[in-house]
């Protein structure tokens, strides 16, 4: 059986194609993100596929919370997902849509996890360095993980740089264990 990413791909591409043609890439991305959060909620997720819940009511509910109530094309998209039993794929569709959007807009989301909060100056320098390295506009978000001890871990899709002290200690331990 095909995995969720494979099933979600044509839906994400169709939504992106429409949004791009209509000049609504950002609006559709935001709507899909909100809809995926709604569907991702355990209380709403339990309603998906429930035979006692009318699909039309569920679509209206999701559309209202996602801010798609007045957008007939978005409503039709959500109805199509519901009719095909694919509403639960909204989180994966939103992820794939975001990837298509990032490709077109030449942007990349980068997450920096550091032992201590980054200063504004550090964040700016890191953003500039990553923009140069990745040749894309960088949207930087940062989190703090004291267990890193020192340094930081930078993630941009498949690109990962582990400059944390914890990572160095683990690599040293692996090297010593292999010797």
Features:
4 strands; alpha+beta; 2 domains; 179 residues; 14% strand; Peroxidase, domain 1; four-stranded mixed β-sheet; 8 helices
CATH architecture of the largest domain, by name, is Orthogonal Bundle
Parts with pLDDT < 50 across at least 5 consecutive residues: none
Terminus-to-terminus distance: 43 Å
How many domains is the backbone divided into?
2
Helix content: 55-70%
What topology, given as strand order, has the largest sheet? 2-1-3-4
User: Which structural class do you get from the secondary structure elements?
Assistant: alpha+beta
How much strand content do the residues show?
A: 5-15%
* Backbone shape: elongated
Q: Can you identify the CATH superfamily of the largest domain?
A: N-terminal domain of the delta subunit of the F1F0-ATP synthase
- The arrangement of helices and strands along the chain is HHHHHHEHEEEH
